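Sharing a chain and its predicted structure for anyone who wants a worked example. Both blocks are below, sequence first, tokens second.
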Amino acid sequence: MLSFDEFQQNVEPIIVRQGCDAGGDCHGGGLRGALQLSPTGAKDVRYDFDQVSLEVSAVYPESSLILTKPLAVSGTPHGYKPFASTSDPDYQTILAWILHGVTH
């Protein structure tokens, strides 16, 4: 079970810092992409948690789309690749959140 509190404290700040929201052509849903996030001016952490949770694989945590799409070395299509490698601190923070959720 993924932790909302951990998401709010550790993951949402990464999403905000990376500029991932419903603005522009990113994460507004529909034709823009599958992952929908709340807009910058009206952040809804619960909504973002629910949406990001859908991008998590409990069976193969490292294959979760929330990790592979923004990973520069992955073959998963995504216009913005903020994680240079799996050793990126933000990548590791999100992976830790996922692992904690799927092992507890």
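Comments welcome. The two ends are 7 Å apart (CA to CA).
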